[in-house]
């Protein structure tokens, strides 16, 4: 999916860039914290402009999006991994340099990210991304999901692993259906 940025809910929407079965990737979520964030995403968005890095991040977004889109369409995992991790790290850099600073990562988050980089260096197709929280999303081809699930559970601080696969296309559900 790709998000079409807009100025309102009328012109801001997501659309498919490839068929659901185009690339069989899986999201293995390493749960390192089940507690609620002290600072929610809405507040985090509102203070992002206080970071000296935010303007550069926003300005560079179209370039990163183009690289990501092409990597997905070409099933180029190494390029995909590099741009996904860069974007995640840039977002967290903005949060960490905002006023007030937001630090969502836990020691186990960092252990997971370091492990993922090591695994990829060893030849395993795997990358991470972290949304505004401590839990780490590890993306890998379906064929590697069982290996990643097992390895993640062996990392100190990982409480659970959720494995999410791509779903079907969105559809409108009528009341009573």
Describe this structure in words.
With 177 residues, the chain is an alpha+beta fold. It has a single domain (22-165), classed as GHMP kinase, C-terminal domain (Alpha-Beta Plaits, 2-Layer Sandwich). The protein has 5 helices and 6 strands; from the N terminus they run E-E-E-H-H-H-H-E-E-H-E. The protein has helices spanning 41-47, 54-73, 77-96, 107-121, 145-153, and strands at residues 2-4, 13-15, 25-31, 127-129, 136-141, 160-165. It has a 4-stranded antiparallel β-sheet with strand order 4-5-3-6. It is globular and about 40 Å long. The relative contact order is 0.20. The mean pLDDT is 92.
Please outline the helices and strands:
Layout: E1 2-4, E2 13-15, E3 25-31, H1 41-47, H2 54-73, H3 77-96, H4 107-121, E4 127-129, E5 136-141, H5 145-153, E6 160-165
Antiparallel strand pairs: 1-2, 3-5, 3-6, 4-5
Helix pairs in contact: 2-3
Outline:
globular
Radius of gyration: 17 Å
- Beta content comes to 15-25%
The average pLDDT value, as a whole number, equals 92
What is the domain tally? 1
How much helix, percentage-wise, in residues? Answer: 40-55%
Main sheet properties: 4 strands, antiparallel
Overall structural class, as computed from helix and strand content, comes to: alpha+beta
CATH class: Alpha Beta
Write the CATH architecture name.
2-Layer Sandwich
| DSSP summary, beta strand count | 6
Physical arrangement of strands within the biggest beta sheet: 4-5-3-6
Q: Please provide the ordered H/E string of secondary-structure elements.
A: EEEHHHHEEHE
- Distance N terminus to C terminus? 26 Å
CATH topology-level fold name: Alpha-Beta Plaits
State the helix count: 5
Low-confidence stretches: none
What do we call the CATH homologous superfamily?
Answer: GHMP kinase, C-terminal domain
């Amino acid at each position: 999916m790709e998000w079409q940025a807009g100025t309102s809910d009328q012109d801001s929407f997501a659309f498919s860039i490839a068929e659901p079965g185009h690339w069989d990737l899986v999201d293995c979520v390493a749960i390192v914290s089940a507690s609620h964030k002290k600072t929610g995403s809405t507040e985090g968005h509102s203070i992002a402009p206080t970071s000296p890095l935010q303007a550069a991040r926003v300005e560079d977004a179209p370039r990163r999006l183009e690289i990501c889109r092409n990597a997905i369409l070409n099933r180029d995992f190494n390029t995909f991994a590099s741009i996904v991790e860069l974007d995640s790290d840039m977002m967290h850099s903005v949060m960490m340099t905002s006023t007030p600073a937001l630090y969502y990562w836990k020691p186990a988050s960092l252990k997971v990210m370091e492990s993922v980089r090591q695994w990829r260096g060893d030849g395993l197709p795997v990358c991470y991304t972290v949304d505004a929280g401590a839990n780490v999303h590890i993306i890998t081809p379906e064929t590697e999901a069982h290996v990643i699930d097992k390895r993640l559970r062996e990392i100190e601080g990982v409480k659970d692993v959720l494995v999410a696969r791509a779903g079907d296309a969105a559809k409108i559900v009528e009341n009573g259906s």
